[in-house]
Amino acid sequence: MEDNKMPQQNRSSGGLSGLAIRRPVFTTMLMLLLVVLGLFGYQRLPIDQFPEIDIPVVVVQTVYQGASPETIEREVTQPLEEAFNPVEGVDRITSVSLEGVSQIVVEFELERDGDQAAQDIRAKIDAVRRELPLEIEAPVVQKFDPASQPIISIALPSFSSPLWRMRR
Fold this sequence. Notes:
This protein has six helices and four strands. By secondary structure, the chain is of the alpha+beta class.
């Protein structure tokens, strides 16, 4: 009699793998159901090839004709960077000072609205404008928009045609 009890105990044990081995049709049907539900869900996923992304990055470019990079750094870039630091949501500020040009890139946290961030930067520029040299052109504030970037740039060389003919 004890021999009969032994197989029943082994039958009830094994957990999920034991169930899968004892009932292969049930296991196969369960897997097929999961695959069909996955395919159905995949077809209903909203996929956009070019999604609308608002990356909160603002670029400020200031032109100071004839100024050296050191002068640009000292008189234009540093005062503007100091004005941009306390703006809410600033993640990183990077700048480049070249001869006659200052370019400052202000990156904000992703939760920040890009239009509002650009407006805050404009307000800070207006507040610090009196401290900047009078000879500079008005700083240009631009939002970074990936949709306005070219999709592809092509460069073709020609050894037979002049440059002006290729531009047509």
